[in-house]
């Protein structure tokens, strides 16, 4: 079981070398145990799937799944750093941000991942018309993310029901406990020339 080890932490990843081909790329931001990414990779062999996760025991679980298929890789890294510095410009068809840590205490709010700078980095990494999908069980966090996104002119905002995609591990757990799930999508808006 070997996670992805980048040739450099200071230069964009060589995606064709990593995946051995050129194909549309999906990136799971905080992929946890990799269950969602693995299911999507299995059902979509024509695309490539990359997971970022910082917790070692979850990275190990995700790597064990990635080892069994050709189109999934997992990198142990801090998501904002990886999006900003390791993803080539216009390389990602879709980002998935599923149940990001909500940091519900007021003094921890600054740890929340979606900020204007984060969205700028997402924008740079997306292909034209590329999408960032977001899901959370926290209504207040959902409203805050929507607020940050609405202030940005980089994206069009759309509702989504998530039914086209496999459930992540946290999604399955929250659904079993009867929690409401809030979702939306941000689609990259290309500048008018
Ligand atoms: C609530 S869990 C959701 C996991 C998975 N997306 C799911 O839906 O099953 C949030 C995950 O994001 C990871 N995470 C949080 N902040 C991160 C960061 N800055 N960089 C990488 N992973 C992060 C956590 O370690 C955790 O595994």
Question: Could you please describe the fold and organization of this structure?
Answer:
The structure is a single chain. The protein is α/β, with parallel strands linked by helices and 193 residues long. It has a single domain (22-188), classed as Rossmann fold, CATH 3.40.50. Helix content is 33%, strand content 24%. The chain is built from seven helices and seven strands; from the N terminus they run H-E-H-E-H-E-H-E-H-E-H-E-H-E. It has helices spanning 15-19, 35-43, 56-66, 79-86, 116-125, 139-151, 169-176, and strands spanning 25-29, 48-53, 72-76, 92-98, 126-136, 155-159, 182-188. It has a seven-stranded mixed sheet with strand order 3-2-1-4-5-7-6, sandwiched between helices. Helix 3 (56-66) links the parallel strand 2 (48-53) and strand 3 (72-76). The longest helix is centred in the last third of the chain and has 13 residues, at 139-151. It is globular and about 40 Å long. The model has no long low-confidence stretch (mean pLDDT 93). Bound molecules: S-adenosylmethionine. S-adenosylmethionine (SAM) binds next to strand 2 and helix 7.
């Amino acid at each position: 079981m070997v996670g992805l080890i980048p040739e450099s932490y200071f230069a964009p990843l060589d995606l064709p070398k990593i995946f051995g081909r050129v194909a549309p790329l999906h990136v799971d931001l905080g992929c946890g145990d990799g269950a969602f990414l693995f299911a999507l990779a299995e059902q979509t062999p024509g695309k490539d799937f990359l997971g970022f996760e910082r917790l070692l025991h979850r990275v190990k679980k995700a790597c064990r799944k990635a080892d069994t298929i050709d189109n999934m890789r997992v990198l142990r890294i801090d998501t904002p750093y990886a999006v900003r510095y390791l993803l080539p410009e216009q390389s990602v068809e879709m980002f998935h941000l599923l149940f990001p840590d909500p940091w519900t205490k007021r003094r921890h709010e600054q740890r929340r991942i979606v900020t204007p700078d984060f969205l700028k980095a997402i924008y740079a990494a997306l292909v034209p018309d590329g999408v960032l999908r977001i899901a959370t069980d926290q209504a207040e966090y959902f409203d805050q993310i929507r607020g940050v996104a609405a202030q940005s002119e980089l994206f069009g905002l759309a509702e989504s029901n998530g039914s086209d995609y496999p459930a992540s591990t946290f999604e399955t757990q929250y659904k079993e406990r009867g929690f409401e799930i809030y979702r939306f999508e941000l689609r990259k808006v290309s500048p008018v020339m």
